[in-house]
Amino acid sequence: MSTGASFSAKRADIQLLRAWAVILVLLHHADLPIARAGYLGVDIFFVISGFLMTRLIADGIRERTFSFRTFYYRRAKRLLPASLAVVLICLVLSAFLMAPSFQAEFFQTALGAVTFTTNHVLASQSGYFDASAEVAPLLHYWSLAVEEQYYLVIPIVLFLCPARFWKWGALAATIASLLLCFAVVQKSPATAFYILPTRAWEMGIGSLIAIMFTGERSLCAARRAFWPAMFLLIAIPILGVGDALGLAHPGVESLIVCLATMAVLIADRAPAQTSGVFRFAGKIGDASYSLYLAHWPFFAFARMAWPGELPLEARLILLCCAIATGLLLHWLIERPIHRFRFSRPQLLTVPLISASTAIAAFAALSPALRSVDAIPTGLRSGNFGLSMACSGDLQSQQWNRECRSTQHPRVLVWGDSHAMHIAAGVAGAVEGGVIQATLPACPPTMGLSWFDANMSETDARKCVAFNRQVLQLIEDEPSIQIVVLAGAHHAYFLDDVRTYDEQRGLITVNVENVAKALERTVADIRRLGKRVVLVRSPPTADFDVGLCLERKQLGLPLIGPLARCDIPREMARQRAAEANEILAKVELRAGLSTIGFDDMLCDATRCRTTLGSQHLYLDNSHLSIGGGEVLIRELMIGERIEKAAS
Fold first, then answer.
1. What is the pLDDT of residues 283-300, one digit of tens each?
2. 3-state secondary structure at position 497
3. Which of 192, 351, 503, 513 could form a disulfide linkage to 184, CB 3.0–4.6 angstroms apart?
């Protein structure tokens, strides 16, 4: 992403690395299988940036020519004009193309883009690999924020620290950041992915090159490692080794790529730029920053308007448009402003500060100024059941107060978010009151849980402990007579999901594992003398049904075969295949009845996502607040629970 000192243009290896890095990112975001781990292009950029900036600063300090004012002025001159142009264009497009439910988060990221805090904004919103991240037009600005934060810290550290301590200080700081990253990624992958302390080691490797690895011995060692390093830089992102092995990111995969980049930079043995290939690579490398800035909004805005997976033809067209726009941004804004010599710095800094302030003010005020009437009531509001407090802490006074409809409830709703979205409806449909014991991403499978790329094994362990607490709750609450179980059991079989077993640790999950865990839950409930019933998940989709319904209601652009927002019957069948097999085993072996929604919503070809004027879905699988209540009422779930409980 960010461009470096001018001397980098003289090195064909740096230009080649930049070109390869941005190509990887573009291919990955276009979802082309040729680059399964194309996101590693960002890691390559980080090492290059750390190297270039540290060399520039260190040389200036040694020669007593370094100036903070000049350094930050040059950074702003190089980076801000193109960056602000993309933010401004996205703000304009958002007014016409973006659904209101996404605008508040988008304005936060726009504010983060001009204050270099986008990484922290996104860390608090969602994970990089979440479905919602696919429609965040400024998602990619997180890496720019990390780099700018590094640029803020490294000049101060080098200036204040005596040069004789640079080597060991840089080495110690890089190792500390790496160890912190490896520790945090196991507990909070989103935090490890986004924040500077856990990503600084990648730029720190670049800084080590500039400070430590000089002299003929380092050069000879690096040259011997050059071709193996080049092989790794090509093979690992293309093959997606980390994904295949289930490695956390950032982690071992990133470390290997960063060390390979390090070896290439130290070797400095790329052919002369007279070669046609390297001249072309040089031009791509020169434009890499603008290409990076311009590409992602195309895919984000397109995914808003096209429910489901974008077809290959559309992704290739978007990629071509993104490349063309990035080159225009480079030729018309980035390069001219960078090369132009302003007679006074104020001629540039005043407009940049004014533009940044205006964008920041607009982004900060827009959510407050936007009409509340523009958002469909309840359509995209989170469906937490009886209360937002019903999300795991069974010991809190707030949970005890807000997560039971009566003091001595007769029915317990237990499960994950798929139990949460029916809890309020069940409370209004059954006699004797309801108590809600739910935890997102925690199905009611005793001793077993799952976690994905935005979670960790710690979350799975918490789920197992939570389910034990719920069982204790059932024993401690004599008023409970019926337990309603609901869970997204299909989640065990989604991509990039790992399974934790209380007895065996991490396991390769199969239908039998989950069925036995669910049977254990049923047996434990019955052992306490309670009746139990299972409620199946509603039909689920491979696209955000709630977003589609919102856009449809507001008349925003919708294109593609799923523009009606219904769920194809075959898609729903495939998504529920393993869950249906699990429930069939439990029904047979435990003599248990289940309650489902398919008979009412689905015919031979499609599953409806509306009933009359009521939109049923919040996203691809969760019911909206109104949708859950309507379905519970229309299906007479209260009566069916009484009959089915056994």
1. 898 999 999 999 999 999
2. coil
3. 192
